[in-house]
Amino acid sequence: MAAAAEQSAEHFRGQARLPGFAAPRRYDLRLAPDLAACAFAGSVAVDLDVAAPTRFLVLNAAELDVAPGGVGFAPRGSGQVLQPVEVTNVPEDEILIICFNEVLPLGEGTLTIAFQGTLNDKMHGFYRSVYELNGEKKNMAVTQFEPADARRCFPCWDEPAFKAVFKITLEVPSETVALSNMPVIEEKVNGPTKTVYFQESPIMSTYLVAVIVGIFDYVEDFTTDGTRVRVYTQVGKSAQGKFALEVALKTLVLFKEYFAVPYPLPKMDMIAIPDFASGAMENYGLVTYRETALLFDEKHSAAANKQRVAVVVAHELAHQWFGNLVTMEWWTHLWLNEGFATWVSYLAADQFFPEWNVWTQFLEESTTGFKLDALAGSHPIEVDINHVDEIDEIFDAISYRKGASVIRMLQSYLGAEVFQKSLAAYIKRFAYSNAKTEDLWAALEEGSGEPVRTLMHSWTKQQGYPVVSVKLKDGKLQLEQTQFLSSGSTGVGQWVVPVTLCCCSYSRQEKFLFDGKQEDFDLSGLMECQKKDNFWIKLNVNQTSFYRVSYDEELASRLRYAIETNKLSAADRYGVLDDAYALCMAGKQKLVSLLHLIAAYKDETEYTVLAHVITTSLNIAEMMAVAAPEELGSLKKFLIDFLEPFAQKLGWDAKSGEGHLNALLRGTLLTALAELGHEATINEAVRRFNVFLEDRETPLLPPDVRKAAYVALMQTVNKSNKTGYESLLKIYRETDLSQEKVRVLGSLASCPDPVIVREALDFILSPEVRNQDAIFLLRGVCSGAHEVAWQWLKENWDYILGAYSGTLLTYFVNITVSPLATDEKGDEAEEFFKSRTKASIARTVKQSIERVRINAQWVKSIKGEADLGNVIRALAHKQ
Ligand code: BES
Ligand code: ZN
């Protein structure tokens, strides 16, 4: 560290990270929120270690009033308090530079700061959320600090590597419940207010600190080893917390065993917050959730809601070890937190609910990762972060989904047992400390004796992934890897690819690392079956690795036959389709052959696979609507004929005792048929909906098919007949279940009449829709209305920019821009954002526009497929 004594305040501006010459050890934090006035007062006493001579203390603060008179530094044992000569607040760097007249003595000292702030309504920092109690609107105070908003609540060293102990005290209205990371040790009531003292925490990062004040109910239970777990809800809703409570109890026990370290805190509180920016947040010992991600209502929640709750709870509880106990050293390693928690949440869900086949469902995570990572504007898993505004955007499909996918790849390469043992060693080694990606590889390399570093560097330090092209020639398998890009161009990346393959049967497998560009493999032993008629070969067995495969024509048609004759595992059936779709979009394969492949799934039995066939088909229809609208009718007929038999088999009503996956499938199928305009589905939906409108408890419209019915109903709405739309608004207004509200929001913009879509979009901006929920309506914009939504976004941009920030703001851009499919719209978007870019959305804007270009290119190539019309008509006819 340069001699900080000589530095000037200027020196600290424009830096990515805080200087390291002083580090916090313990915070004594007091906060007094005023719920009615939406303001708070606070004071913090930070015990520091001054490690190099300095006249400055530099720490984070944003949107806080700090009176210079309220700042002092007391060197340990000196008996005096030094007053600063200057306290400079630098808003653009979100720092406070405290300058003293003299050089501070090395060693310990206590910095005290008094401050004031507002409880904002942006869902970050210290904010207010609104709920209803006995018909009256009330404010609660909530914190959301990740990634870098603790500084909006109290001045602090707001970086994950500055871990410290927290002693928190709150002054709150006497009738409220005050929660924080640790249990309460004492409450002193003094008339209308009370002071609540919390136990001191173990050493932790600022982004995990949490404070909540409001009026709540809870349900409670204890894990088998005695940890107290509570689920807090709005008053009257605590029964909806029971399912999450059960999952949490089991998860805490599972992870204690898996990581071989007990849960580090004395209690775990989980709480549903009515206004919440993300899905959930893993604050140490006090996990916050959106209502939809925590609450489960036996009567009105769907199977999909149940699964979401289980997965989110497992994800956040995984962070208590992976993230909270062992914390990333810097945001470059965010993926360690998020990729890992995502992966291990599936591990937990699979243990508790084996019948959900979550590992097959996991493939949807990989697909989303693949999609983003096929853009030139993607980024490596380990990404440079040079400014705080860049952090929000990396909570994306690369950190979460590609991250989880490469962990899965490594686990399946190393074997489950070695992997778990090495992880446990890693957690033990870095507990109460920070780690980098490198540290995890070192532990896994030690535990396995495999070249983990070399293998994984190729996946985490460079962006993108390979497509492995396979040809069969003279009994030899020729492999070649190139970087896959959706634009169809070839990138320069190269990877160490853990290749697995099987031939004619899953008992004939081969496994090796492929790190060259091109190589021939003599697999004559394995491939004796290649003379047989039903010969097939599948790479990336069960889709455990993160690469795509492009088969030569012969091998591809063999695989299609293997699918038709049900020879492949569900994961492989999924993978073949997913790769074919991606290759088609990149112009490497014709749409007609993709359509032929889809037809091969006519006897599909697995939910995830069929759901993916549906998603793929609807995407194709969307592109066809732009590329060849005259063929859209026959394409829809083909798809309806394809889906109808499945729907007939499943029906609208659950069979008694039927499984979770059937429930999921029924909703997905009926929604798709409604979107495709299938009349019988729409009529039946309307019939059932009308009964439901009169009686919300009717068995005719169980939660699993409600979304389908709403979407179907919206197909009947137009500007001269808005009854259906208004009925849905009635349901929205009358329910107090967030999941029901989201179902309605998700269907309102699924209407063929653009006038109605506009009206629905405007509804987003009304006070009836919480800011957290706007994206659900946007996501529901039907395929014909993307340009309407884009126009709407442009017109309302200034308002949106003022009302939203963080990931929510990036969703507006991504959801609205990405589906556009002409160069003209691409130019328009470029032009529009040229003068409106800022660091917090720059990456998303770039990626979204790239997607438009890719769509446009795909549209052009579809237009060039001369025989497309004939093939579609033939396929439609065949069924
Ligand atoms: N740490 C995140 C929450 C978060 C997200 C904070 C973005 C700041 C910015 C949390 O652990 C998380 O990942 N939540 C997910 C849900 C999860 C099940 C994938 C989310 O919010 O979507
Ligand atoms: Zn997470």
Automatic annotation (TrEMBL):
It is found in: Cytoplasm; Microsome membrane. Its cofactor is Zn(2+). Keywords: Aminopeptidase, Cytoplasm, Endoplasmic reticulum, Hydrolase, Membrane, Metal-binding, Metalloprotease, Microsome, Protease, Zinc. This is Aminopeptidase. It is an enzyme of class 3 (hydrolase). Residues 243-459 form the Peptidase M1 membrane alanine aminopeptidase domain. The active site is at E316. The keyword Glycoprotein does not apply. It comes from Panicum hallii. It holds the Pfam family ERAP1_C. One of its GO terms (biological process) is proteolysis. GO terms for cellular component: cytoplasm; extracellular space; membrane.
